[in-house]
Design goal:
Layout: E1 5-7, H1 13-23, E2 38-40, E3 45-52, E4 55-63, E5 78-80, H2 91-96, E6 98-103, E7 105-109, E8 115-120, E9 125-132, E10 145-151, E11 164-165, H3 173-178, H4 183-189, E12 194-197
Parallel strand pairs: 4-10, 5-10
Antiparallel strand pairs: 1-2, 1-7, 3-4, 3-6, 6-9, 7-8, 8-12, 9-10, 10-11
């Protein structure tokens, strides 16, 4: 699973914003992109990128879908990419509401509870996710929520953990948001070169 990620780019924000603009021309709301710096936890609000009225748009949403049952108090923070299109909770969003979460890295823990930070050389990751809206007529609802999609780990993450976030190459950001027929191909056939540090 992915239970925490990090956005800490005060000295590099403009370069990161340029990468986003190049990847998603016409993006709306990027001038208001002002996320929490540092570690981001489930239940916190964070700006995500999604499609709205045929344009990529930045919207603050809460990390975590409501609990799946009345007997559970735990937020759903991840969705398994392999089965999300079959699960009642996620299948509509997998087809129609994919999103991108910008991060400078994500954490995973090994069996000894040691924490590792995974980043790439560009210091910006496009994490693939899903979102849901609580008010169908207004995607800006403050209670709108997102989850992170996870998949089998690559060779860098697998010694540490058995899952990792779906990472979207910046060149595929636009089709990730808009072309549902490419979703599986992006998940299964593309990867990002990561490095790990304790």
């Amino acid at each position: 699973m992915c239970g925490r990620f990090i956005f800490f780019a005060d000295d590099d924000t403009e370069r990161i914003m340029n990468v986003v603009r190049d990847s998603l021309p016409g993006i709306s709301g990027l001038n208001q992109f002002n996320p929490k710096r540092g570690d981001v936890y489930p239940s916190q609000q964070f700006p995500i990128i999604h499609e709205n009225k045929n344009l990529p748009t930045v919207t603050d949403m809460i990390w975590g879908y409501p609990p799946a049952s009345k007997n559970s108090k735990s937020l759903l923070i991840n969705a398994r990419a392999e089965t999300a299109d079959k699960k009642y909770t996620f299948r509509y969003d997998f087809k129609n509401r994919r999103c991108i979460i910008l991060a400078t890295g994500f954490y995973e823990w090994n069996k000894e509870k040691q924490k590792y930070l995974f980043t790439d050389k560009s210091n910006i990751l496009f994490i693939g996710g899903l979102y849901t809206v609580t008010n169908q007529t207004d995607v800006q609802d403050s209670e709108d929520r997102f989850v992170i999609l996870t998949k089998q780990p690559d060779s860098i993450v697998s010694p540490i953990h058995n899952r990792m976030p779906v990472l979207i190459p910046p060149t595929l950001a636009e089709p990730w948001l808009t072309q549902s027929d490419m979703t599986r191909d992006i998940i299964n056939n593309y990867s990002i070169a990561l490095s790990a540090q304790k």
